[in-house]
Automatic annotation (TrEMBL):
Superkingdom assignment: Bacteria
Protein name: Putative domain HDIG-containing protein
Record SMART domains: HDc (SM00471)
Gene3D superfamilies (UniProt xref): Hypothetical protein af1432
Domain HD stretches: 37-142
Length: 164
């Protein structure tokens, strides 16, 4: 049986992906707010994919959604060091990884657009993947039970509600 997630597994084994995640983990070691490592990426992937299934998506592959979600924050470490927007950096860093893992040019363009859009919450002109990643990025945070809720600039009471 052909592994339908082979390219995602190749991505997870990629030296550069793992270096980015390790750097993020190190920089966020003392962070009291949500972290942006593998666990966050896989949670975003699961939620985004479920969201797209519930919307009746037939165009975006599971593998593409998971790749986008796992890569959407890999530029966080650059943002911490330079202030550059991590969505743009993540897309830039994702491009060679996606190519090396065998994603088609068409798939790459969709994935990179979703990564770039994941911070533009609830805007009207988002791609379907960008919308799914933006929503899943919020829902993947455990705001309801977070001890840093009062200090968090991202916290909104509606983030503890299940809506869409």
């Amino acid at each position: 049986m052909l592994d339908s997630m082979a390219r995602v597994n190749q991505l997870l084994d990629h030296e550069d992906y793992n270096r980015y995640i390790e750097t993020i983990n190190e920089l966020e070691k003392e962070r009291c707010f949500c972290k942006h490592g593998f666990e966050h990426g896989i949670n975003v992937a699961r939620i985004a994919y479920a969201y797209l299934l519930e919307k009746g998506n037939r165009d975006l592959s599971k593998e593409g959604v998971y790749a986008a979600a796992l890569l959407h924050d890999i530029g966080r470490w650059v943002e911490y060091q330079t202030g550059e927007d991590h969505a743009e950096v993540s897309a830039r860093l994702a491009l060679p990884l996606l190519k090396e893992c065998g994603f088609s040019s068409a798939d790459i363009q969709v994935i990179l657009a979703g990564i770039r859009e994941h911070r533009r919450h609830y805007e009207d002109d988002l791609s379907l993947l960008g919308e799914a990643l933006a929503i899943a990025d919020d829902w993947a945070r455990d705001c309801r039970y977070c001890s840093a809720q009062k200090q968090c600039y991202k916290f909104k009471p509606e983030m503890t509600q299940i809506i869409y």
